[in-house]
Amino acid sequence: MAKTYQEINEKIASGEAVVVTAEEVIGIVKERGVKEASEYVDVVTTATFGPMCSSGAFLNFGHSDPPIRMGEITINGVEAYGGLAAVDTYLGATQPSQDRGIEYGGAHVIHDLIAGKEVHLVAKSQGTDCYPRKDLDTWVKLEDLNEAYLFNPRNVYQNYNAAINGSSQRLYTYMGILQPNMGNITYSTAGELSPLLNDPLLKTIGMGTRIFFGGAQGHVSWMGTQFNTACPRDDKGYPQTPGATLALIGNMKEMDPKYIRGAVYEGYGTSMFVGVGIPIPILNEEIMAFVAVENKDLYTNVIDYSVPKKAKPTLKKVSYAELRSGSVDINGKSIKTSPLSSLKMAREIAEELNNWIKKGKFFLQEPIQSFPMGNTIKGLEIKEGESR
Amino acid sequence: MTKKILLSFPQKATGQPMAMELIKTYHLDFNILKAFIDDNIKGTLLLEIKGQEADIEAGIVYLREHQIGVRDIESVVEVDENKCVSCGACTAVCAVGALEMTADWSLVHHDDKCLECMLCVKACPMRAIHAII
Fold first, then answer.
1. What are the chain B neighbours of A178 within 8 Å (beta carbons)?
2. Interval A195-241: pLDDT, tens
3. Given B85, B92, B125, which is nearest A345 (Cβ)?
4. ∠ CA(A77), CA(A81), CA(A85), 5° rounding?
């Protein structure tokens, strides 16, 4: 029997909702079967905690006296965008600082703000009739700002490549350090706990879905960039390659610094670890069957990152169970595998979201719009000629 | 027995025949694993010393009497548990399994296995791993 969002929310309000994590639900479905499990379980919590470069924060500092139209802006030495209105800015997570480079970047500033630390704000302007001030040098905390919210254009990738290095040189990449001569494989996923792998056809996750976002209650605001729902899928619909992505929004003032952390990838740059949890309402048997997926049935490709082209060769298709086992066999050689996203923290987030729902502090939001299926991604053509 | 110790020399303690004393008086063998030391500049020396337990203890007393700091070391890298998120990026470069994931996907540091290649320091995105010397 199908359930509605409203019925599930009523159960949450009365404390009767059955909420389990996407790992726990696997055993329940095995024991009871899809039909009975779908009647028993109301919500399945999914989560991930890993590096998500396409992230950043919109900040509004409030007006000084006399006021300034901030042009060049730095926060703790990290440049923020000066092309918005007078005291609005966007601080990108991967922006390196002018003094410490990638060791301290936008993501670290965002973490420090959420942690309540004072940050150094420096701004310059040409001065205008309405905004006469030409420079500003001060210290601010998150609580001093009018608005501060993360708006991450591309998070929670639905599946991602595993990386290997077929060259004779060590590589420093966003997939970590890759040892030469196929010395190791790295992968980044929460696998069977991953949000978008539990809802492969986006039946419940869409614009407006309420989520756990960095410790706050945030929302899915749009489809993420490079949204590829036309990706290759298995016969059940699970993506075999990078697929859907989500744009997320949430109030930094309600976040916990534990779940938003600056990261440094040696020789590559700054990134940000983002903690995201998404509840999946068990509306019917189809959705129940999807969330019961296991690592052994989720696949990705091992890609050679030493090839400096957009299209990198695939060496092997592997399941997440194989990757998690600690080694993968390629051409008769056993190659060590290592994760890059924290399953330990993802489990903690799934558990935390689970508690919020059980305690009636978090309710499900039905998407106000579903995302398109069959969406492809384009590349960028380099056209010759100076003017057109 | 074998023991790994980290010696720190204040400026005034440099220029003493420390090595000769350890060998001659205390009958200790040692390997210099890492050294940052010059005459008249403070420095550090990582030694693996081999000998009778009593001799090692007496040798350490001798060093301390000469203002040389002595610290027992298992591994030259330390993992800051407050910063570590157990992502696993360091395990990718640890060829000897000194850093590995447990069954519940927490990071564990077996410091006795560490060969001091220091690659984990670079590999850690949280900068939670640092070298003692």
1. 92
2. 999 999 999 999 999 999 999 999 999 999 999 999 999 999 999 99
3. B85
4. 125
Asked whether the beta carbons of residue B87 and residue A179 sit closer than 8 angstroms, the reply is: no
What is the Cα–Cα distance from A287 to A299, expressed in whole angstroms?
A: 20
- Touching A: B residues 52-111, CB under 8 Å: 85-89, 91-93, 101, 104-106
How does pLDDT run across B104-113, given as a tens digit for each residue?
999 999 988 8
Q: Which amino acid is at B71?
A: R
Q: What is the ipTM of this complex?
A: 0.94
In terms of domains, do A158 and A213 share one? yes
Quickly count helices (H) and strands (E) in chain B: 3, 8
Residues A335, A328 contacting (CB under 8 angstroms): yes
Q: Among A103, A266, A339, select the one facing B87 at the smallest CB separation.
A: A339
For A270, the closest chain B residue by CA position comes to B125
Residues A232 and A338 in one domain: yes
DSSP A161: -
Residues A267 and A330 in one domain: yes
- Residues listed for chain B: 133
